[in-house]
């Protein structure tokens, strides 16, 4: 049985700044993801605060929101069988030091905060996050 899903991916400012968006998009395509929507934008800190609201009680929340709004990002809707989990696997662990070989964060991540990509963590959150960026 097929289980085609959509998930939201963000190429974060540290990676866009280093012009890694083309390479990262190639990594998605090579793993069988289709990029069905895509835009390069810069968001306000207030928007980052809404996007990362689940983390509002964390000590790193303010820095995280300042960072996500600090420069251009590439926001994408990815489509694939089991897209949510497969994207999490391709991204690698939150801390690039813990990420497996062959993952995006191992290859390109600089630190736990500058870890190059965001990916939805559940089908439910993928819907919410896709609406957040692409509901017109
Ligand atoms: P995820 O991006 O792998 O889903 P989350 O736990 O949802 O990880 O955290 C969201 C983002 O917040 C991470 O990608 C990372 O940039 C940042 N972050 C998470 N934990 C820490 C931390 O302990 N210090 C600084 N930044 C953190
Ligand atoms: Mg997360």
Blueprint of the fold:
Blueprint: E1 4-11, H1 13-17, H2 21-30, E2 34-41, H3 45-51, H4 61-68, E3 73-81, H5 83-91, H6 104-108, E4 117-119, H7 123-134
Antiparallel strand pairs: 1-3, 1-4, 2-3
Bound molecules: inosine-5'-diphosphate and magnesium ion.
What labels would you give this structure?
Alpha-Beta Plaits; four-stranded antiparallel β-sheet; 7 helices; binds inosine-5'-diphosphate; binds magnesium ion
Structure description:
The chain is α+β, with helices and mostly antiparallel strands. The chain has a single domain (4-42, 74-133), classed as Alpha-Beta Plaits (2-Layer Sandwich), CATH 3.30.70.141. Helix content is 41%, strand content 21%. It contains 7 helices and 4 strands. Strands 2-3-1-4 form a 4-stranded antiparallel β-sheet, sandwiched between helices. Inosine-5'-diphosphate is lined by residues 55, 60, 64, 94, 112-113, 115, 118, 121. The site of inosine-5'-diphosphate (IDP) has 9 residues, from loops.
Largest sheet: 4 strands, antiparallel
**Physical arrangement of strands within the biggest beta sheet:** 2-3-1-4
Q: Return the string of H and E elements.
A: EHHEHHEHHEH
Q: What is the gyration radius calculated from CA atoms? A: 14 Å
Any guess at the CATH architecture?
2-Layer Sandwich
CATH homolog superfamily:
Nucleoside diphosphate kinase-like domain
Low-confidence stretches: none
Structural class: alpha+beta
* Strand elements, count: 4
**CA-to-CA gap between the ends?**
32 Å
């Amino acid at each position: 049985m097929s289980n085609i899903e959509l998930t939201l991916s963000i190429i974060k400012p540290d990676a866009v700044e280093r012009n890694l968006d083309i390479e990262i998009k190639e990594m998605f395509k090579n793993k069988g993801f289709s990029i069905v929507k895509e835009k390069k934008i810069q968001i306000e800190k207030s928007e980052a605060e809404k996007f990362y609201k689940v983390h509002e009680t964390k000590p790193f929340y303010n820095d995280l929101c300042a960072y996500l709004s600090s420069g251009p990002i590439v926001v994408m809707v990815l489509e694939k069988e089991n897209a949510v989990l497969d994207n999490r696997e391709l991204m690698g662990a939150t801390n690039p030091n813990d990420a497996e070989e062959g993952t995006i964060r191992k290859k390109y991540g600089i630190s736990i905060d500058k870890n190059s990509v965001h990916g939805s963590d559940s089908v439910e959150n993928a819907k919410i996050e896709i609406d957040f960026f692409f509901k017109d």
